[in-house]
Amino acid sequence: MAGSVGHTTSEIVDAVVVGAGLAGLHQLHRLLGLGLKVVAFEASDGVGGVWRHNRYPGARVDSHFPHYQYWFSQEIWEETDWKQRFPAQPEIEAYLNKVCDRLDLRPHIRFNTRVISANFNESAGRWTIETDNGQTVVSQFIVLNSGGLSTARAAPFPGAQSFKGVSCHTSHWPKEGIALSGKRVGVIGTAATGIQVIQTIAPQVARLSVFQRTPNYAVPMKNPDITEAERKAAKLDFPRLREVVHASFGGFAYEATPPLFDEATQEERIQHLESLWESGTLQIWGAFADSFFNPAASRYLTEFVRSKIRPRINDPRLADKLLPTDHDFGTRRVPLETGYFETFNRPNVELVDLREEPIQSIDETGINTSARHIDLDVIIYATGFEAGVGSINRIAITGRDGLVLKDEWEKALRTTVGMQVHGFPNLFMTMAPFAPASALCNLPVCADQQVDWIGDAIAFMIAKGAKSIEPSASIEEAWMNHHREVSEPTMLGANANSWYRHKRKDGGVGELIAYAGGIPQYRTTCDHMLASGFDGFDIR
How many CA atoms lie within 13 A of 85 on its CB side? Predict the structure, then answer.
């Protein structure tokens, strides 16, 4: 049942923001700027979101300077002096804390408070929000900025709790760190996070056992210190850069337009790819304008990357295990690395191929595979997240007519432009499925656009004096059809084994959450909704 607006212990506000990470801080600032009474709830004891929790060794961003920072304020941009081309976790966490204090947001955030339920009262057009420490807040609007990659996947191995050594998921790394020097360490997972951990700790530990289910391509990161001249140039170029990134496909200001694969000669293709490889950034991900759509282009790019990686691994048989054979380059997230593949040339590092010897259980002293027992002092889980919906589904959300969001999404995952859901009025979200921000975008750029759209939608409602807004079923179906039309035919759609695709409870292959239409097409749709006065939405 929906919560009662008249509940004597309820605090009345205009809007609730869930999460105080990169998007949540911006969202809070945007809504406060509308003159609203806003409260933000943050489950941890400080701001930063994933950049507060992911303190594991080697944690750093893979969007290069100057892209990974807020774009809504030129003043903040000019006040920030980044140190490295790819900032590490401590630098980003410090930046987010500085912005929080610069905008005086901290007094509006309630820390160590997790939202556990949200129930919509249709007659009042308001949400009743309850927290884990007994607070009840009634609000017209609720905005979920809880993160698309923030809810860790639980270890699926029998006996994991019986391990007597130290074990930790990378997203819950303790602030005081974990003593690794001279220890026998196991890392489970070789995606982006696992790669960063493995390459960083290998020289420190006595023995490192890397448990790999799916090998990954990765591109060498070039991470020099930022010079004063580069900082000054970026600050002066802010207006142009902001326009370029918001009009780009994925939120980066690349100067050159990539060629179409079939229009480039063999010599031009090689020269182009060599240049991108040497850049040490993610630019090679979209090496050709049709990389995501042309199987020939995708295969050509894949073979180029394989030819770059293989010589770095001394043992040819080991190279066969570390090089993917079941998917093309770029159809899973592309990590950046620093000496990752050379790590496996070290005598203290072993690869445990889980396709040959899967993990059967964990006991007090280590991991049991189908072939052997491996003694360990530390187990590090780099096993990923419940992408897109995990943090949202942790909240018991009940909308109009008793609809439960988690149950509805189990039937069929759906959103309207990744920011609203039919049946759940006045509920907004960022980094949810079926928007560029869900997977294929430099987050600060896409979060910037989503936060502004949500702010504009709420401002529209206030000006209109309306109680609630929700997308109609037809609007939502039109967006989902568009998403499927532009995303499923791509090379991303061909890869079922990726976090870009929703994992269903029954183990079946779910929806592709990554929207592959790019920022311009997405922005055009969102802008049209606003300019039309939300034509087709149910406004009451």
Answer: 13
Transcribe 175-223 into DSSP letters. TT----TT-EEEEE--SHHHHHHHHHHTTTSSEEEEEESS----EE---
- What is the chain's percent helix, strand, coil content, to nearest 5? 35, 20, 45
Give the tens place of pLDDT for each residue, 43-68: 999 999 999 999 999 999 999 999 99
Residues 231, 354: Cα–Cα separation, whole Å:
45
Domains, in order of start, for the chain: 11-151+386-539 (3.50.50.60)
Give the C-alpha distances (Å, rounded to integers) separating 164 from 28, 152, 167, 428. Answer: 42, 21, 9, 43
CA 51/CA 173 separation, integer angstroms: 11
499 is written with which tokens?
């976090």
Residue whose C-alpha is closest to residue 111's, from 135, 141, 89: 135
Q: Is residue 102 very low, low, confident or very high in pLDDT (cuts 50, 70, 90)?
A: very high
- Full-model pTM: 0.95
Q: Tell me the CA distances in angstroms from 375 to 149, 367, 382, one per residue in order.
A: 31, 7, 19
User: Residue by residue, what is the 3-state secondary structure of 132-176?
Assistant: CCCCEEEEEEEEECCCCCCCECCCCCCCHHHCCCEEEEHHHCCCC
What pLDDT does residue 285 have?
94
**The residue to which tokens 């029954």 are assigned:** 506
* Alpha-carbon span 282 to 319, nearest angstrom: 23
Burial of 442 (0-12, 13-18, 19+ CB in 10 A): buried
